[in-house]
Write a structure and sequence with these properties.
- It contains five helices and seven strands.
- The protein is α+β, with helices and mostly antiparallel strands.
- The strands form two sheets. The chain has a five-stranded mixed sheet with strand order 3-2-7-5-6.
Length: about 170
């Protein structure tokens, strides 16, 4: 095989692999979701896992939640998630990236309280007609977050990810 023919083969392989890489990146980007706000509702679930208060928080409550780092509204554009993520990946992302201080604090208060850690220590919540509802999914994945972020095909400005922590003893911030 001549040197020029080999060079042409290598160039063809590089172009083909670059196109394949670009196509796979395009497919991955299709599955990345952004939302306008991330909310963590702490102590809003009763012992049965139902919401104590189904009304969305007021602007003042949202501001207080942001100060406690239980909400990201102004900074929500820093966070995005993949619809392809497993439950473990979603949990890790929420605990270590989106709500690290809130999860750390809540997890530290759970220890020694006699409360068993459930398989999923948080629940997915959906906003339906100005009311919050707990979504009964045992281990929410990235596709579940995407499905319940708002109405179908809603713009990013109307999309929210809302989660609630499992019942805890009363926490005072």
């Amino acid at each position: 095989m001549s040197g020029t023919h080999r060079l042409k083969q290598l160039q063809f392989c590089q172009v083909t692999s670059t196109k394949a890489r670009a196509a796979s990146q395009f497919n991955l980007e299709d599955k990345v979701a952004k939302v306008a706000s991330w909310l963590l509702l702490v102590n809003n679930l009763d012992d049965d896992g139902n919401l104590i208060n189904t009304s969305p928080p007021s602007r003042t409550q949202l501001l207080n939640m942001e100060h406690r780092q239980c909400a990201h509204i102004e900074t929500a554009n820093r966070f995005s998630f993949s619809q392809m993520w497993t439950h473990d990946e979603v949990h890790h992302y929420l605990q270590n990236e989106v709500f690290p201080l809130a999860f750390e604090y809540v997890n530290s208060t759970e220890k020694g309280k006699g409360i068993g850690i459930p398989s999923c220590p948080w629940v997915l919540i959906s906003k339906e007609r100005l009311r919050y509802e707990v979504i009964n999914i045992d281990n929410p994945t990235g596709s579940d977050l995407a499905r319940f972020q708002g109405r179908p095909k809603c713009p990013v400005k109307d999309a929210n990810v809302i989660i609630g922590k499992e019942p805890l003893s009363r926490i005072i911030y």
